[in-house]
Amino acid sequence: xxxxxxxxxxxxxxxxxxxxxxxxxxxxxxxxxxxxxxxxxxxxxxxxxxxxxxxxxxxxxxxxxxxxxxxxxxxxxxxxxxxxxxxxxxxxxxxxxxxxxxxxxxxxxxxxxxxxxxxxxxxxxxxxxxxxxxxxxxxxxxxxxxxxxxxxxxxxxxxxxxxxxxxxxxxxxxxxxxxxxxxxxxxxx
Length: 189
What we know:
- The protein is mainly alpha-helical.
- The chain has three domains: about 1-40, no CATH class; about 75-125, no CATH class; about 125-189, no CATH class.
- It is about 50% helix and about 0% strand.
- The chain has eight helices and no strands.
- The protein has helices spanning about 5-10, 30-45, 55-70, 80-90, 105-110, 125-135, 150-160, 170-189.
- The longest helix has 21 residues, at about 170-189.
- Mean pLDDT is about 75; it is low at about 1-25.
């Protein structure tokens, strides 16, 4: 059997990897996407006998799955703090699916995604969490329940449009800060 150079560089077709090419060849974006879809489909069809997995191994398995597949936290029956923490670090908006939030989980979610603050439960809106939320994006002030002067000023420094969410009690302070910022900008120009 004679092989020519064209045959060697042709993609190899098989069940597991539809786009495996010779080592020198690069995969196109569509080929990479096709591989990811097939891998996701293969992972979705895996069935596991629950009697074979003890608690320690199941948590390790779930941590691996959360690292690979986004959006699977709602399907986890036993959400430990480690599982929830890994999920919100990967995708901050998955905070909405966390059944038992902690301050640490909320801070990790806010760090991961600026819009995660809207899913922080009222019991975990501590000074630290609120400051982190408004520092990340000042417009998160609209979701803060206990607006203090410190939180309002941090929100204004982060985003000028946060002014519309400041209570009337703190608006005089906010006006002063906005005027100072405006004067600084005017002086620079």
